[in-house]
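Readers of this paper often ask what the protein records in our data store actually look like. Below, we set out a record of this kind in full and without editing:
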Amino acid sequence: MMKRTILQLASFSLAALCCLGFIVATEPQAHAYIDPGSGLLALQSAGAALAAVGYFLRRRIRAIFGAGGGKKTPEAIPPASVPVTIAAKDTSRAA
């Protein structure tokens, strides 16, 4: 099942890359000015899209990499060590 999903994802990615390559290769030359900020905006949009996909698929990503296997039982969690100080009685007080 997992192998089939990976194969479908790979074939979809290859098809999308081929379509993108075809679109870029057949684009007529544009005679316009593009501000450098436009490229950074496109880069930011792509990064935001990747972050959104990662957020929505976080459970599947955890399952693939095996992180967060299960909840710890109370017996498995070690007790916290809290240092205890005992105050000595002050005997140096003048009468």
In short: The chain has a mean pLDDT of 79. The helical segments are 2-25, 36-56, 58-65.
